[in-house]
Structure formats: C-alpha cells, structure tokens
Specification:
Translation Initiation Factor IF3; homodimer; 2 helices
C-alpha cells in the first residue's frame, strides 16, 4: 500500500498534508496520489484545494476515483464497509 | 442553485439521500448530481457507494469535480473557504 508518491490523509491538520504533497512534487514526482478513507475524505478535498489555491496554482487534478473497502474492526466481528477517495495530482 | 436533478447532502442518514437519488432516476432524469460541502463531502461519497453497491449496480460515476466556495458565517465577519464536491451519476 505504501508508495513513495502517495499521501495518506489522516487526522492531522490540513497543512501537514499540503506540505507533504509539495515535498513530493519538489522531489520530482510526476504524479502525487492523495488517498483517504471515511471521515478523512473531506479533509483530502481540503488538502487539494488549499494546495491549488494557496501554494501551487499550476497543479491539476488529473483524476478522482471513489470506492469502497472492507475494514475489519476490532469491536465487531463482521467487516464493515468504508468509502475511499483517490485524487491524482499533476504538477 | 436548486435544481430538480440535484441531491444536496446534509446531515441526515445516508439512506435518505440514496432514496432521493433513486427517486430522481425513477422519474426519468438523465443525470443526477450529488453535491456536498465541507464535512458532508465524506457522506456524499458514502451515498454514491451505497447506491452503486446495494441498490443500482448499473449506475456510473460520470464525473467528479471538487472546488472551493466562500461562505459568510454569522460568527465571523470575514468569509471563510469551504471545499465542495459534485458527483455526476448516470443510470
């Protein structure tokens, strides 16, 4: 799962992830993938919008994919579904 | 803003909005637009995924657009930015 051109969005402040995207672009990555699950999906969109509007206006959203993953929680025995988003950015 | 082929996602349960999408498709709409802002963006993705996986497997995601809107809150004098999503569905 872990790829050097992917930023996984969690519960940290938006700017942390914006900085992570900028660092990947500066390191010469062709594409940067912003991925999130569940409640973090909103923050993933925030990260991309802040990156575009405030720091890297030339960045383009090449593709947005949504999907569903099954997650095994520790509290419940049955797996539950969680929505996912993947936003592909080009410099 | 209000269009007869658009479902605006708020804070109600996901299935309410899934039903609203199905009703629009049943009424003969070519495209259904699912729109959300801020924290509701995650729920918009949930709505589309539940609709596809449980109720209307033939529905296709034709396009996903993200953006930013300025919102004037009552608490603060300065407008604040909020992220938006628009998911276009085809039957």
């Amino acid at each position: 799962m872990e790829r050097s051109n992917t930023v996984f969005i969690g519960r940290k402040p938006v700017l942390n992830y914006v900085l992570a995207c900028m660092t990947l672009f500066k390191s010469g990555q062709e594409n940067v993938f912003v991925k999130a699950r569940g409640q973090s999906i909103s923050r993933a969109v925030d990260v991309v919008e802040v990156l575009k509007n405030r720091f890297m206006p030339d960045v383009e959203v090449a593709e947005i994919k949504i999907g569903t993953e099954q997650v095994q929680s520790e509290e419940r025995n049955t797996p539950s579904n969680v929505s996912t988003i993947e936003i592909v950015l080009k410099p």
